[in-house]
Amino acid sequence: MKLQGTMIINDLGHLEIGGCDTVELAKDYGTPLYVIDEELFRQNCRDYYQAFTETYGAEVIYASKTLSNLAICAIVNQEGLGLDVVSGGELFTAAKAKFPMDRVYFHGNNKSVEELKMALDYKVGRIMVDNLYELGLLNAIAAEAGQKAKIMLRLSPGVEAHTHEYIKTGQIDSKFGLTLENGMALSAVKRCLELDNIELKGFHCHIGSQIFELQSYAHAAEVMMSFVRSVHQEAGYLAQELNLGGGLGIYYFRDDQPRPVKEYADIMMVALKEKAREFGLPVPKVIVEPGRSISGPSGTTLYTIGAIKDIPGIRKYVSVDGGMGDNPRPALYQSRYEACLANRITEEDAETVSIAGKCCESGDMLIWDVELPEVQAGDILAVSSTGAYNYSMSMNYNRLPRPAMVLAANNKAELIIRREDYADLIRNDVLPERLDSSVVNLAK
């Protein structure tokens, strides 16, 4: 497993994160356990701030869908980034963390009336309007509230990034955004300019996630600037802001080759500026919204190994006390991860095993064919790069409680999400009196 951030091997031959022995963390907090390397998370924020904000005056907003809780929102705020939310729940979390609402951007392709009212009540910085239905709905809600909603239109630029089909978002055939090619986007702009309670600030696009090929971003910037020019010529409107999304790829497995944030910023911004110069237009304020590339590398999940089943000549299954409930990505996207035995990290690899989760599904496999020392029940397995989309996509399938999360920094671990218990699983259940199991009905 590739060591990242503050990971080191200590004198006991154990994996350390943020100065904390992961074997001790497993004892103290139980497993499965999400561990966030605070220093790495903050450094990733700073890399973006330096590459985009300090160098180009762009705004960086963290995509909280990748990992959202009160502590993470607080760190993002301290590092000077804005926040991208996609639901009332994420917006509520930001508000409870006292995140400045003028730096919050509200996304989503089907925001409810309640969510739009909430966004206006909280006075979020921008509402990213995805479709004409939402545009009309928001205008009516804003009129009723006596407000003028500041919006950006989400567009589908027709740029297909090289990534998994389920995380492509910029192609024409997508549930997200208004397409450029068929005139939908231009019609939406004209409609915005007719509405009394809508203030159009600019345009947004997002071409996908886990992208390594940086020319996709340059192409998206050029396409969007071409649209800015078309709108200016045909509707007399000049966009002030341009949000070019996020999606930069991270290291999960040995085939992955992440690109530096600075290189990403330079390629995108140079392409944008060249197009603006070519068209004789001012460069809009640029916004980017990284998520995975900030939170992903900073997360590690710890598991305790239990049952081991060796099928001679076929495969050796090693089961852990978590699985698709805390990390559904392998089942959803065939995502690949690396792992090590945190309590025996200095020992040489001795066998090839496959890591199975405990859910009652044949597809609950975390890692196929990983090289490890000879595995024993009770070993602590550490899976790296689990900070993005793992906790945020976790679930209670098989009525499994979701894991705890700790923030590791400066030789200290702090609990930032409590482990669910069985009482949490039935907290919202309602048992009608007629079904009370204490009353036995023997009537036939």
From TrEMBL:
Pathway: Amino-acid biosynthesis; L-lysine biosynthesis via DAP pathway; L-lysine from DL-2,6-diaminopimelate: step 1/1
Record flagged with keyword Lyase: yes
Binding site for substrate: R292, R329, Y333, E361, Y389
Residue ranges of every copy of the Orn/DAP/Arg decarboxylase 2 N-terminal domain listed in the record: 44-295
List of catalytic residues: C360 (proton donor)
Superkingdom to which the source organism belongs: Bacteria
UniProt xrefs under PANTHER family: DIAMINOPIMELATE DECARBOXYLASE, GROUP IV DECARBOXYLASE
Subunit structure: Homodimer.
Purpose of the protein: Specifically catalyzes the decarboxylation of meso-diaminopimelate (meso-DAP) to L-lysine.
Family: Belongs to the Orn/Lys/Arg decarboxylase class-II family. LysA subfamily.
Protein name: Diaminopimelate decarboxylase
